[in-house]
């Protein structure tokens, strides 16, 4: 179900164009049929054109309902997709780096010492004054219930949503969404009580009013008990 909603949301521009084109074709057919009907005299011909009018009107009504459904899905349903539950939390595996041989009086011995190599992920994709996460900070330890503070304010603003995932996973879960722009203010709360402690990524995704996705602002955080 979520994949279907995301498909119609991500391709809303093309879907609108196809539906509007179909509506215009049906409208043109209706107008031509009505014009033709005025000049007809025989009852059979008028009955045939009447059926064509009914088909055109029916097509227009169906396409109109589809346009309303697409608008409702993109505007109201897509920003409020339910969050998915994350069960596992991947951890960073340390890499073993072999050290130089150690020479002693007894001979030469090769010793391997485990050394952890890690790259700390910093905030990425953020645009100060437009798409930015102020709280929590990148790399911050968080617990309980966290207030999300930041900015979601772009030209032709549509809506924003907050998402998270465990580091190393591509399964993003929606925390919350909003349809009003926010400037260095409260974007909502994130309840961490059901999450397994570990390293997570938090991102702010902003869309304009034609559902175009802007650069994604993403930071790493660490959930603790």
What does this structure look like?
By secondary structure, the protein is an alpha+beta fold. The chain has two domains: 2-80; 131-223, Sandwich (Immunoglobulin-like). Helices cover 32% and strands 32% of the residues. The chain is built from three helices and twelve strands. It has helices at 2-10, 12-38, 43-77, and strands at 96-98, 102-104, 107-109, 112-114, 131-135, 141-142, 145-152, 157-166, 173-178, 182-191, 198-208, 217-223. The chain has a five-stranded mixed sheet with strand order 6-12-11-8-9, with no helix packed on it. Strands 5-7-10 form a three-stranded antiparallel sheet, with no helix packed on it. β2 and β3 form a beta hairpin. α2 (12-38) packs antiparallel against α3. The longest helix is centred in the N-terminal third of the chain and has 35 residues, at 43-77. It is elongated, with a radius of gyration of 29 Å. The protein starts with a helix and ends with a strand.
Low-confidence region ranges = 82-120
Biggest sheet: strand arrangement: 6-12-11-8-9
Topology-level CATH name of the largest domain? Immunoglobulin-like
Mean pLDDT, all residues = 77
Gap between N and C termini: 33 Å
- Our estimate of the beta-strand percent is 25-35%
Domains (count): 2
Which structural class fits the helix and strand makeup?
A: alpha+beta
> What's the overall geometry?
elongated
How many DSSP E strands?
12
CATH class of the largest domain: Mainly Beta
Fraction of residues in helices? 25-40%
The description of the largest β-sheet is: 5 strands, mixed
> Radius of gyration from the CA trace?
29 Å
CATH level-four homologous superfamily name of the largest domain: Immunoglobulins
Question: In the CATH hierarchy, what is the architecture of the largest domain at level 2?
Answer: Sandwich
Please report the number of helical segments: 3
